[in-house]
Write a structure and sequence with these properties.
The chain has 6 helices and 5 strands; from the N terminus they run βαβαααβββαα. The chain has 120 residues and is an alpha+beta fold. The strands form 2 sheets. Strands 1-3-4 form a 3-stranded antiparallel beta sheet. It has a two-stranded parallel ribbon with strand order 2-5. Helix 1 runs parallel beside helix 6 and helix 5 packs antiparallel against helix 6. The radius of gyration is 14 Å and the shape is globular.
Length: 120
């Protein structure tokens, strides 16, 4: 990977969509993220049926410098295109923290707190 590291901005559309899913109780609290996180085929299938704007709603980060309406533009997926996954939010927190993407880490953590407050 060399010295280049992608930088990300917070995807407000994704944050708003995550909040909507929490309000609507469209979430899964116990799942193994490794098993349920969307694969390329899932992404392609979703894009066949939905707009790029809807696709964007499932990601907490936007890759700086990547063109809109490309898969490379969207990072930090938190759900399976049907429901938000608590394990997906945790994965976003960890990955963002690991790569020092502070803003994305913060927003993922905040959503996790909101989810836990809504379900306790």
């Amino acid at each position: 990977m060399g010295k280049f590291m992608a930088s990300y901005t917070v995807n407000r559309r994704g944050v708003a969509h995550a909040r909507k899913l929490i309000k609507a109780k469209r979430y899964t609290l116990n799942s193994n993220w490794g098993d349920v996180q969307p694969k390329a085929a899932d992404e392609n299938g979703f894009l066949k049926e939905h707009s790029w704007q809807e696709y964007a709603g499932w990601f907490l980060g936007l890759t700086e410098g990547a063109a809109d309406e490309t898969k490379a533009r969207y990072a930090f997926v938190y759900g399976d295109f049907r429901r938000l996954h608590r394990s997906g939010l945790i994965a976003c927190v960890y990955r963002a923290a690991e790569w020092r993407h502070k803003e994305v880490e913060r927003v993922a953590y905040r959503l996790l707190q909101e989810l836990d407050a809504a379900t306790s």
